[in-house]
């Protein structure tokens, strides 16, 4: 139930019986050996699955986010934070005007967090608009699974190495986590992070990944029940 | 050769031998019986084909454009024009900083035209940046094919009814083109355009569509030769 | 009936019987041998004539537009596109608040087209605001006259060489139209266009010019009848 | 030597021998019985005279300024202050890029004062850009003449009643100056100011006006000598 | 009665009986031998005294203003004018939403004047919002006291040398006022102003300072009576 | 060593031997029974102490942050997120131009986090600018102390109840932590949070507070050693 497979009549009919919308935001940025679109592919896969279970429609993903940090890695296409705020505002307002009153944003990228501040401004402007925000990798669900298997989640390590985000072989050894350099320019960030992973195992068992995915999916399905 | 199938090492290697990039912009808006993402699907299909022929990489599409006009049709998610200008600027600047010096923007949506003004500002700022812009449906190629078959191209009529943009049955009769209402609010626009098509045949022969596609593809391949 | 010849009492009285306004926008940019204000002089002359026929008042012209393209030609004073959008918004909103509900914008410059996108946003905000936009040189009327005399309209050629836009002698020979260079920086644009004309005859018969002017004037008078 | 009477060749030639430019800004706003364009007509007349004496070219006037205050008076077309700042920036930057390095801005309207703050930012950005700002009615010259004749200068009173700003009969009696109401909304401002004049005599002797004009003209000619 | 000494319950109770608020704006900029926060310390001291007399609460000061001009003097931290306008807007709107309907802004810095333009826009948006603006050093009160003692008020001279703004010894001799250089870059401004004072005596008798302070305080108390 | 106690000569001398600066940002917002300026008072106290130990100068605090969330609590004065980004940019750029090359921002408010995104843009623009960001309550130091005493840190509970942030009696019982309501409008937030505390103990032993303070102070002193 993606917008791309629907026409406007479909949406009009949908809105007669439902007012929920899933929006997907993420980034186009380096993920070490993984796809440059990793931060879109994961929340979109979750959105698709949740849509299948719940019938809630999925808006097209915003394929770019705030990735200034990684701009020295080729293939990273980044929005200024001010632009990101405006895009998220426009999409939410557009949807709201068409009577999508309950919007779940599934976010795949940490750098997009400032958008939450703009969303607080929007719910102040439109009191009957309800927005929920889910950054999947920050959920208790992911934390629980990771701890269960003694894995530490981090950018571009096993955590994001789903079958559908892999575009090349992954290293089999572990990487020593680089020291987080604080607020530095892209060049320094690249020096610090080398291949781009934040360290730990590059991959793990498919079953762990499935467990992570399922846990997040359950979170999402619950969040889509706006009555709770 | 889409970004989503590559990682940053791939792009770094690519940039050692090439500095061209294809960007795809369009809209998420009503297209009568066709997909809400019609304006993305067409330029993206052209970009994929051109990429296959030329090896030029394709950035992720910007799935939204300026569609205020159609905002009374559910499923239309629109950016303010100021936001659109900023997004296009950010993506081009981001790519330019990574040494993509020759960028072809394949545009699928008329409402995005104001972005050209911002691009003129960017090439003034970065003198060695070269940008080309291709609005496929405005090309002489499309005009020629359309005239050859006595068809009039218009929003959401046969012109955009490719196999891959269809998401439902299409009417078989023709539609009388509505009178273009000028600068009016979304509600009036919806009243005027009814099902959303700008009139004429809703579909035509697959061979005509293939001819259109091939003609545009040739245009694009030629535009990607930045020496001419 | 220009604002400059009126005081606020006059406008207050006018608004008791009429709610129409003519706004004139254009550019201050190179027009080869013609006046730098060509893009203002033409729509303003049309506005004055239309005002004489219809009694509709004419706001002061906005003497600048988006002319980044021509900035390497001295005397071109250009607005960023974001600024242009804001100015047009402010003027329209200001007029609307004073109960000018029907506004005809006569535009003299192609680079100002992005302003239309902002106008679509304004009519969405103010549902009882009606705006019409007339880019005189793009009208069917001009096309018809030009074809009748076998002339091709283009920037700074005969099309804009009215008696009142001439500030020097004009070449008598024709110019071979330069190849349109796409989105290039001001320096390249100047190299391509040389004296600044887009080619063809630099001037034509005064009667042709009068015919063009009359045809546009009729268009405008018709557009000012907001009932049609 | 207005831009409107010149083409770009003329400006190019001019710039070979001079790098000075006069810019005129003002407002389109209520001036009681005087022209709505009073704040443009006066600085433009001064600019024309100064141009005649010195040969310095005059850019087209910006016909609008910050007049929110008077927006309840019909015919007042106002820019938001943010827009005003951007317009002034764009015009100055445009001129500077063409090697106008010494710019005198003749301002006809008090509400435009915030633009000075942006100009301070511009001279910081372009160290060899020199800008002077002349608000004619605030000059010591005007003060001196006014005191000499026992007249108090104020908005829309005798001070601005030049022959070329009059568009109707002027009252012959004096007006008691209204109490300045501080930061109030347009409606209150209109209640306070009534016919729009800030009080005192509505007109004075033509010779006084000529003396004012000459005094300002001398100021301007002196300011145009950027060596002092 | 500063916000810092109150919690939100206190403000809620206050708003049951009063709807007035004192806001303090100024600058962090060079003041010759005086504190870098001189432009905050003075209006804040006035605000505190007025609060003591009237019970009106005082919002935290905005410690920065538009000081581009003095940016070559270390310790000057300046806001762009556009930022300043936005901050003032946000604070006023925030307060207004909580039912502070009568706001007195005590301003300590001349460069903040453009904020008044934004305030005019705000009172147009919120008709029942009343704002008063007091730039203490421009008051008739200060002028009167200064004239009485034959002192000329100027930036960073005796006028601002209160006991609480002194952070070092002050020169005992007078300074010849530098020529006001117009709109120049920070470097030139520093060359012109040297130690940063605009000239005249660096200090005067404490009794004069007390008289100035009392005169301003009376002004403020009167302004806080929004009925007059 | 606060700016307010220094003049520009002092800063100029300081910059001859040091290029570090402490900036303090926070919020003016409800903190239950604590001061509305709690989020400023704490980082400022830390900054003062760190300054005493290290000699690094402290810029005036920005007394406002992004607090839209709490705007239904009177006394909360909030900046839009876009404004906040601009203010932080301006202050950092201003300081950087005066050769403060190493800036530590001590942040007292979670809502200010989006500013980090703008800072990443700034270090990209000024490669020799180094910025560190310290949100004291998120430090491992605070976590350690809190765990040691079995206390859970939260907004407006014991964590922020220093002697210098108290402005009234504090409840002696504990509060059941309200359920975090996600992205909701101010009114709902107030309903959920009641007195404004996020729950747990309202106060704890002074010795615990001193331990927290010391731990943060050590962090800051270490961060001020930019060589590590």
Query: N- to C-terminal separation of chain A?
Result: 24 Å
Largest interface: A-B, 53 and 53 residues
The mean pLDDT of chain A is 97
- Number of separate strands of chain A: 6
Low-confidence stretches of chain A: none
What Rg of chain A is obtained from the alpha carbons, in whole angstroms? 18 Å
- Based on helices, strands and strand pairing, what is the structural class of chain A? alpha/beta
> Spatial order of the strands in the main sheet of chain A?
2-1-3-4
Question: How do the helices and strands follow one another from N- to C-terminus of chain A?
Answer: HEHEHEHEHEHEH
Q: Please, how many helices of chain A?
A: 7
Q: Outline of chain A, from the CA principal axes? A: globular
Oligomer: homohexamer
Helical content band of chain A? 25-40%
Biggest sheet character of chain A: 4 strands, parallel
Beta content of chain A comes to 5-15%
């Amino acid at each position: 139930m993606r917008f791309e497979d629907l026409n406007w009549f479909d949406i009009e009919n949908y809105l007669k019986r439902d007012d929920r919308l899933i929006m997907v935001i993420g980034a186009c940025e380096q993920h070490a050996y993984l796809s440059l679109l990793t931060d879109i592919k994961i929340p979109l896969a979750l959105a698709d699955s949740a849509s299948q279970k719940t019938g809630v429609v999925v808006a097209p993903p915003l394929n770019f986010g705030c990735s200034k940090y990684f701009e020295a890695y080729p293939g990273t296409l980044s929005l200024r934070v001010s632009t990101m705020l405006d895009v998220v505002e426009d999409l939410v307002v557009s949807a709201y005007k068409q009577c999508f009153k309950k919007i779940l944003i599934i976010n795949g990228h940490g750098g997009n967090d400032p958008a939450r501040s703009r969303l607080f401004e929007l719910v102040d402007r439109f009191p009957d608009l309800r927005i929920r925000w889910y950054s999947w990798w920050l959920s208790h669900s992911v934390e629980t699974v990771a701890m269960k298997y003694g894995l530490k989640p981090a950018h571009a390590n096993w955590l994001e190495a789903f079958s559908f985000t892999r575009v090349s072989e992954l290293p089999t050894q572990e990487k020593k986590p680089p020291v987080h350099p604080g607020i530095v320019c892209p060049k320094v960030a690249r020096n610090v992070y080398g291949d781009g992973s934040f360290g730990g195992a590059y991959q793990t068992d498919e079953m762990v990944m499935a467990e992570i995915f399922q846990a997040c999916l359950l979170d999402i399905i619950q969040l889509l029940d706006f009555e709770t």
